[in-house]
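Hi all, posting the design record for the shared folder.

TITLE: backbone redesign
STEP: 1 of 1
STRUCTURE INPUT:
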């Protein structure tokens, strides 16, 4: 506890000495009425101390202000009033900055810079100027004729002290955080050299008095804007301080564009100029720093967003990959199960078919007509089951990639005629005619002859199955893009228009077929499409209900 109290009194003592010494220096600049000076550094030092270390340091400000004014010649009660005003000024300035701009220990955005200039600079300085000038007047130290002149000089001096020394102390107290590269150091030195040259031209009058024009003071904005753009508050405040020192010395020496009849009048004009150029430079610097912060935040946001998007995309890709892997595994398990189950079913189905055939043959005793009918239906069911198992095996083999396509050159017309022989008796039982249109041009294709027969057999079997009367026509011809096409057109029940896009899907059966037939398993056309595509061809269908269907198979031409 004692160490904290000792540290507190040390801070008050340091602030008292800093205030007292800088006040004596400020009062040496031909103070108006002996107390209102050009630049009042203690106002900036006091506000910076309150902002950095808190309101508890106010005794150091009051003691320093009271003592320096008393020694300078102010009456005792006037010195108390002046000390009170000088103390209230930084306290109010700090409160307004924290209350309305959220200031903590540095300028974060343009709002805080503007709040500092107008609240802590121009507004809170009114208290010190009013308390000080009024204390001098009511204690008989100044006459009413110089009240306004003294008040203006006092107010502008405090404003300049705040605008110059508060940012200087706040930013340069963190010197350890300042890093300049060799290139930045060279650029800063060049900028300071340019400022020095302009000061020599304007205040040193090195070009001679005839060449001095008041408009040349605007040249000073160039290095200040350069500093704001490239180096921020630290270097800009240093430039303002350097410019203030040079301009004060030059004006007091009777040089520069602000020299008037009296030194006091000259210093007032210089005060106004310094207040304008300091405020403008700080505002520009605040705008530039704000834009830099926005750019950094946008860059950071974009980087974080890019990282999040990449993570989300990677997570989504990983999820999709796992989902796809899971689906593939399920599909493989399904195919393995179908294959295994099919193989397990083939043997008992073959036995059932064999036993039923033997019973129907009469070798093991006579079978009456009723029993024969039941046995015949059972045999047909066993045959349908055998076909379903065979189709399932074929489907599993094709989908798993185990099927082997052996391409060879053969005449598609010859193969068609061979397959038609196997179905001719079945067609004659329904009184259906086969019409074959064969052209003289070559119909040689490069495909698997075994699977080509299977596809043709499947399409022809369906055509016979779903055609009650009329016939089936076959046309083999060359088609576009190097294919030989075979058209199989029937006069059967046709396919619903909504079902056409799905007729080659697995286990899909047209509603029109379901109402007319019950022995389809929905795999025949699916297997046909897979086989044709494996051979590098295509299969399509065109159909109208109750008018018939036309299946067109395209196989690669030799």
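Okay, here is what came back for every position:
SEQUENCE:
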């Amino acid at each position: 506890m004692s160490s904290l109290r000792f540290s507190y009194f040390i801070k008050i003592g340091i602030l008292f000495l800093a205030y007292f010494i800088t006040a004596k220096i400020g009062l040496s600049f031909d103070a108006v009425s002996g107390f209102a000076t050009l630049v009042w550094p203690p106002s900036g030092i006091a506000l910076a101390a309150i902002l950095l270390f808190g309101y508890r340091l106010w005794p150091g400000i009051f003691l320093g202000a009271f003592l320096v004014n008393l020694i300078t010649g102010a009456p005792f009660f006037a010195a108390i009033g002046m000390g009170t005003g000088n103390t209230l000024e930084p306290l109010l300035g700090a409160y307004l900055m924290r209350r309305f701009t959220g200031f903590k220990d540095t300028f974060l955005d343009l709002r805080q810079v503007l709040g500092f200039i107008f609240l802590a600079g121009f507004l809170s300085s009114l208290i010190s100027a009013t308390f000080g000038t009024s204390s001098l007047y009511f204690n008989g130290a100044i006459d009413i004729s110089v009240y306004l002149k003294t008040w203006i000089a006092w107010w502008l001096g405090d404003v300049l002290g705040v605008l110059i020394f508060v940012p200087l102390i706040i930013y340069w107290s963190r010197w350890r955080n300042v890093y300049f590269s060799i290139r930045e150091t060279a650029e800063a030195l060049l900028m300071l050299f340019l400022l020095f040259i302009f000061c020599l031209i304007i205040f040193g009058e090195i070009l001679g008095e005839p060449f001095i024009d008041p408009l040349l003071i605007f040249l000073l904005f160039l290095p200040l804007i350069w500093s704001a753009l490239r180096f921020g508050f630290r270097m800009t405040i240093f430039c303002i301080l350097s410019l203030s020192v040079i301009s004060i010395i030059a004006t007091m020496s009777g040089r520069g564009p602000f020299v008037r009849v009296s030194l006091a009048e000259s210093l007032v004009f210089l005060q106004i100029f310094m207040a304008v150029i300091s405020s403008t430079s700080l505002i520009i610097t605040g705008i530039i720093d704000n834009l830099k912060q926005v750019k950094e935040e946008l860059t950071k946001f974009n980087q974080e967003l890019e990282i999040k998007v990449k993570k989300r995309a990677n997570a989504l890709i990983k999820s999709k990959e796992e989902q796809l892997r899971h689906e593939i595994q399920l599909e493989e398990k399904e195919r393995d199960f179908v294959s295994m189950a099919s193989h397990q079913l083939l043997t008992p189905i073959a036995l059932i078919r064999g036993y039923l055939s033997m019973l129907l043959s009469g070798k093991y005793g006579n079978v009456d007509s009723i029993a024969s009918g039941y046995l015949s239906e059972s045999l047909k069911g066993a045959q349908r089951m055998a076909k379903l198992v065979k189709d399932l095996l074929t489907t599993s083999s094709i989908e798993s990639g185990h099927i082997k396509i052996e391409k060879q050159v053969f005449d598609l017309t010859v193969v068609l005629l061979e397959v038609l022989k196997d179905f001719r008796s079945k067609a004659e039982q329904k009184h259906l005619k086969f019409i074959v249109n064969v052209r003289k041009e070559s119909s040689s294709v490069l495909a698997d002859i075994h699977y080509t027969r299977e596809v043709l057999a499947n399409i022809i079997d369906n055509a016979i199955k779903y055609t009650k009367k009329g016939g089936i026509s076959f046309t083999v011809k060359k088609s576009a893009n190097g294919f030989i096409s075979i058209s199989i057109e029937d006069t059967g029940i046709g396919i619903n228009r909504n079902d056409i896009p799905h007729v080659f899907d697995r286990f899909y059966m047209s509603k029109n077929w379901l109402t007319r037939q019950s022995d389809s398993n929905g795999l025949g056309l699916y297997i046909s499409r897979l086989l044709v595509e494996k051979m590098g061809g295509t299969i399509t269908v065109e159909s109208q209900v109750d008018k018939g269907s036309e299946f067109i198979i395209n196989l690669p031409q030799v």
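COMMENT: Residues 263-361 form the longest helix (99 residues).
Let me know if anyone wants the other runs.
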